[in-house]
Each structure stands twice: as C-alpha cells, then as structure tokens.
Amino acid sequence: MSSIDIHIGLVIAARRIELGLDQEEFARAIGVSLDDVVRYEAGSRRISPAILMRVCEVLRLLVSSVFVGFPSKSAGARFDEPCSVDEPCSVIDIRSRSPRPKRH
User: Fold this and answer.
1) Which end of the chain is less congested by CB atoms within 10 angstroms, N or C?
2) Rounded-to-integer distance, Cα 32 and Cα 50, Å
3) Domain count, the chain
4) Is this structure's pTM higher than 0.90?
C-alpha cells in the first residue's frame, strides 16, 4: 500500500488506543472483522470511504483529521489543519467542473 494508507492506519490506531478500545471492540463497532482492523491499522489494506466514515463516527473524528500531517504533492494542497465542525472546509463543486455526459 501507499504512504497515505500507512498514515491513516497510524492515526486510526492512535485514536482507538486513546479512547481505550481494543481492536476486537473497534472491529465490532465499525462492522468489520478483527483481521480487517489489523490490516487497516498496519496500512496493508486500503480503507474504503464508507468504512472511513464509520471509523470516524466511532472514533469521534472529522474525516479530514485523518489526513492532518500528511504531506501532499498536489499543487498548493496542504493537510496541516483539520476542518472544524463550526467552520467547514470549502468544497469544490465537482458538478460544475465535470463534463456533462452526452445523451444520444
């Protein structure tokens, strides 16, 4: 897997431990197997967006916070600070930038 998978896994493991959850409890709470949790935390299995949402709900994290501290190679993109619930991040309107599918 990639360095982002490892980074996300480390963040998840640290927060789970901080909350006093063992891996089995955490697996049950997010609806996956213990084996899945072990692999997510090791960064050897990529976590899907749907599961990442459940993980963040259980760990009481903003999804953006799992990326804090990860260096980005994208032009101008930085993951230094999480978005807050009170002041959400701006979101690019994908629909306005995506070409409309042609209908025949």
Assistant:
1) C
2) 12
3) 1
4) no
Name the residue among 91, 49, 90, 87 with its Cα closest to residue 66. Answer: 49
> What local confidence, expressed as pLDDT, does residue 71 receive?
78
Confirm if 24 and 34 have CB atoms less than 8 A apart: yes
**DSSP letters spanning 68-99:** TT----STT---SS---SSSPPP---HHHHSP
Examine residue 103 and state whether it is found in any structural domain, yes or no.
Answer: no
Q: Looking at this protein, which amino acid is placed at residue 104?
A: H
Check: CB of residue 30 under 8 Å from CB of residue 55: yes
Domain boundaries, position 34: 3-67
Q: How do residues 41-63 score in pLDDT, each as one tens digit?
A: 999 999 999 999 999 999 999 99
Average predicted confidence (pLDDT) for the chain: 79
